[in-house]
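Progress report, Aim 2. The chain analyzed during this reporting quarter is listed below.
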Amino acid sequence: MLYFTRLNPWLKPLGTLLGALVLSTSTAWAEENKATNDPTLDAFPASKTGYERHVIRLPIGNYENNLKIELLPGKVQEVDCNITHYNGMLQEKTLEGWGYNYYELSDVTGPASTMMTCSDEDKKLQFVPVHTNGSLLQYNSRLPVVVYLPKGLELRWRTWVATPYNTATME
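Predicted structure tokens for the chain:
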């Protein structure tokens, strides 16, 4: 027991780091893929025609002020040796009367890619992301992250851990 109490201060930061590594990339489930009884989700609007609601339930993290979550919408498709991506507009909206935020991806265009010559053997299946504005969000495990995406897209996410603050020198 004494050994555990000496390790306890050391395990907390290690747990944060390991949690970030485990959560580094995950796939959010579309609402139709996971039935839940979460009363918080009842406050959010239903999906518009042509959209799907994706919900991320973040695990409780140590030092959540030092964590961020990055949203990575996109889809898996066959690509060649060129760098390929889509473009879109991620809008943050507030749920009236509740103050909860949710996100909606619109104006998805593409795919856009570089124009290098590639052989047919270079083709492979790969996740092609949608480049958006402001996809790095504050981590909050108390509320679900709700994102509405056009049908055919999936939502991946990853957690970022902040390093300690540094002070810039004056020159």
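The domain at 25-161 is CATH 2.60.40.550 (Immunoglobulin-like). Strands lie at 26-30, 51-56, 67-79, 84-94, 101-113, 124-131, 136-138, 145-150, 154-161. These observations will guide the mutagenesis work planned for the next reporting period.
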